C-alpha cells in the first residue's frame, strides 16, 4: 500500500505532462526498490545469473516457472526493466493499486472466460512490441515447490506468433518465502536468465515444439529437474 501511494501522485503528474520516458524510468525504480525492500525485510538473499543473455532491446516476453506469490516482486527486484504480469481482472478496480498495475502495463484477464482471457493475453503480448516486456507463467498456477508442472501451451503459442523475443527464466527458492511453511521465512532466491530465443523467423513446426523446449530449458536449472 505504501508503494501504491508513493507511485500514485508522480504517476498523475508525469501522465498529465506526457513525460512517458521519465515515468517509465520512475516506475522501474519504484517497483525495483519495493521488491528489494520486501525481501530485505524478510531477510532473503537474492541472486541473478545470465543478465548477459538478455537482448539489447525491450521487445521481450519472459517465460518462467511459477513457484510462489513472491515470484512477482522477485522479478521486479532483479530484472533491469519494468515488466507487466497477468493479473485477475478484479485487481484493476482496487483504488490506487489498479492504477499502479496499469502503469506498469499488467494484463487483466477474466479467468472464467477462457476465450476472452486469451484475447487479452494476445493484446498484452502485442504491447510488448512497443517496449513493454511481459511475463508469462505457463504452468497457470503456483507449484509451491521446485517441481515444475506441465506448461499450458496456449500463451506460449501466442508469444511465438508475435515474432517477439522470448527469454526463458528459471525461478528457484521463492516457495520457501511463504508457501513451504505457511509463514514468512528467510531464504535464498535465485533467478537464472537463459539465452533468448527469436521467434520472428521460427518455422511453424518449431513453434509447435516451443512449449516443450522451453519447459526443458527452464526445468534444467532446477535441482529436481521438473516433475
Named CATH topology: Glycerol-3-phosphate (1)-acyltransferase
Helix content estimate = 40-55%
Label the overall shape.
globular
Distance between the termini: 37 Å
The number of distinct helices, counting runs of at least 4 residues, comes to 7
Please state the structural category.
alpha/beta
Largest sheet: 6 strands, mixed
Radius of gyration: 17 Å
CATH class: Alpha Beta
What is the β-strand count? 8
CATH homologous superfamily title: Glycerol-3-phosphate (1)-acyltransferase
CATH architecture: 3-Layer(aba) Sandwich
- Residue windows where pLDDT falls under 50 for at least 5 positions: none
Order of helices and strands: HHEEHEHEHEHEEEH
The portion of residues forming beta strands comes to: 15-25%
The average pLDDT value, as a whole number, equals 88
Structural domain tally: 1
Q: How would you characterize this protein structure?
A:
- There is one protein chain.
- Helix 1 runs antiparallel to helix 2, helix 5 packs parallel to helix 6 and helix 6 packs across helix 7.
- Strands 1, 2, 5, 6, 7 and 8 form a six-stranded mixed β-sheet that branches. The chain has a two-stranded parallel ribbon with strand order 3-4.
- It has seven helices and eight strands; from the N terminus they run H-H-E-E-H-E-H-E-H-E-H-E-E-E-H.
- The protein has 227 residues and is of the alpha/beta class.
- It is globular, with a radius of gyration of 17 Å.
- The chain has a single domain, classed as 3-Layer(aba) Sandwich (Glycerol-3-phosphate (1)-acyltransferase).
